[in-house]
Write a structure and sequence with these properties.
One of its GO terms (molecular function) is S-adenosylmethionine-dependent methyltransferase activity. InterPro entries: Methyltransf_11, SAM-dependent_MTases_sf, UbiE/COQ5_MeTrFase_CS. This is Methyltransferase family protein. It holds the Pfam family Methyltransf_11. By secondary structure, the protein is an alpha/beta fold. Strands 3-2-1-4-5-7-6 form a 7-stranded mixed β-sheet, sandwiched between helices. It has one domain (about 1-195): 3-Layer(aba) Sandwich (Rossmann fold), CATH 3.40.50.150. It is built from 5 helices and 7 strands.
Length: about 200
């Protein structure tokens, strides 16, 4: 019995350690790699939907120069706006970073304006599934015809691939991030969707 309990405790500790690694380090590694591969031009217009990964918003702003700008859509969490406004001030990027309160189903952004639209762990929480489809349509609406949509998330990300294909996106790919994106284990892994028309 002691051996069994010891094994259970070890397994639980490993699961917690993997989860903590993804939460505190893995997400950053994933986004750093994405941004490196995208090599975003400094005058780009970028929208980040959800602001669910602290640090991404300012990280993008630091890669831009005015008139390049990143607009972050805060989805109803005042503490996130306060956190990111503080980061904007501390990192001196106010000339190229702006936060707007909004809704993923009705983005307060103009059509075909953004070179890049990013979402980090936001879409999985949109329910029911039909609303996720609407949120994906909204993300596509604000994207320039030659822009790129990048979604980092877990959950039903393959749904988004078929929705985008039906909307006329020609180049949609979904890749797993491997163990650095595991939320406790491979049963809940992070994937990256990249789409362009």
């Amino acid at each position: 019995m002691k051996i069994f309990l010891t094994i259970v405790v070890i397994i639980l500790l490993v699961i917690v350690a993997i989860y903590a690694h993804t939460l505190f380090r893995g997400r950053g590694l994933i986004w750093h790699q994405i941004l490196k591969e995208l090599d975003i031009p400094e005058k780009s217009q970028v929208a980040e939907l959800g602001l669910n990964y602290a640090g991404l918003f300012v990280l993008v702003a630091q890669q831009l120069n005015a008139p390049g700008k990143v607009v972050g859509i805060n989805i109803g969490k005042p503490e996130i706006s306060q956190r990111e406004e503080k980061r904007i001030t501390e990192n001196r990027v106010a000339d190229r970073a702006k936060i707007v309160d909004g809704d993923l189903l009705n983005l307060p952004l103009e059509n075909r304006t953004y070179d890049y639209v990013f979402s980090s762990f936001s879409f999985h929480s949109v329910k029911p599934a039909i609303n996720r489809g609407r949120a994906i349509q909204e993300a596509a609406r604000v994207l320039k015809p030659d822009g790129q949509l990048v979604i980092v998330d877990f959950g039903p990300i393959n749904e988004y691939e078929s929705i985008l294909n039906n909307m006329g996106f020609q180049n949609v790919r979904v890749v797993s991030t491997g163990w650095i994106g595991w939320w406790g284990g491979p049963w809940l892994g992070t994937k990256v969707l990249v789409a362009s028309r």
